[in-house]
Amino acid sequence: MASVNTNYGAMVALQQLNSTNSQLESTQTRINTGMKVASAKDNGAIYAIAQGMRSDVAGYGVVSESLDRASSTVDVAIAAGEAVSDLLIDMKEKALSAADASLTSTQRSAFNEDFKALRDQIGTIVSNAEFNGVNLINGTTNSIDAIASADGSSVITVLDEALSLGGSIITLAATASLSSAGVASAAVGTIETSLNNLNQALARLGTSSKSLSVHADFVTKLSDVTEKGIGNLVDADLAKESAKLQALQTKQQLGVQALSIANQASGIALSFFR
Predict the structure, then answer these.
(1) Cα 210–Cα 211–Cα 215 angle in degrees, nearest 5
(2) Structure pTM?
(3) Domain 66-233 has CATH 3.40.50.1110
(4) Which of 72, 238, 261, 263 is 20 to 30 A from 167, comparing alpha carbons?
């Protein structure tokens, strides 16, 4: 039946052309953005999952920064502790030499001056072993915490190791000197005890530094894997989209031709009145 009022064929052709244009627009958007899910309207569920994972990745960045700061603080403390250990070894040598009863007072005084200079250097090192405003070896900080999880619910704690003179680790007094052979001999024993305590403190700091480093590596890998997972969810397959684009462009051209043919159908009615 030919009709000038209703052209069903043109309607169908127009519907198909509109559908093709909509698909073509979606494909072009995927090619332009490189993503198959760029917003919630593309796929609400996938978008929500991806956003949650993006939140985790952002959290991992904060965790890495926190671990790096804590690791640097501990590394500074270790470097200072090792320097103090070297000074204690030198001080033990001076004290052992000054314990020789055959030395004159002048000779012992020379050893004593060296000894006190090394002693004071320990205080200088301990007071300056600071990173980002935190000193982990002078007794002013009980501990430092590094964020260990993306939601901040867990931390890695590193305890303070007070290396000041006259403390529980370095028991040598801040006013220690080698005034006599007997005092020097007693100082040797005190320094040996301090060295043993210091070595244990350095071992604890070293273990903490290793723990921070291992966890930092883990967080980096976890962040990379999560980003890969996000890509699997939202990234477009550009090879597939390219092939689809060509197919849709062809369908669009055919749809335009089909609509043109359908629009000419109503002209058949004129032939009935010639």
Answers:
(1) 115
(2) 0.77
(3) no
(4) 72
Question: Is residue 60 within 8 Å of 219, Cβ to Cβ?
Answer: yes
> How many angstroms separate the first and last alpha carbons of the chain?
18
Q: Which residues pair with 134 in a beta bridge?
A: 131
Where do the H-state alpha helices sit in the chain? 8-33, 44-98, 105-128, 181-234, 238-264, 268-271
Closest CA to 183 of 168, 173, 195, 194: 173
User: Residue 127: which residues within 8 A CB-CB, separation 6 or more?
Assistant: 135, 138
Per-residue pLDDT of 165-197, as tens digits, reads 999 999 999 999 998 999 999 999 999 999 999
- Tokens 């619910």 belong to which residue? 153
Give residue limits of the domains in the chain.
8-34+236-271, 66-233
- Rounded CA Rg of the chain: 39
Q: Which of 160, 165, 163 is nearest to 208 (CA)?
A: 160
CA distance 113 to 103: 15
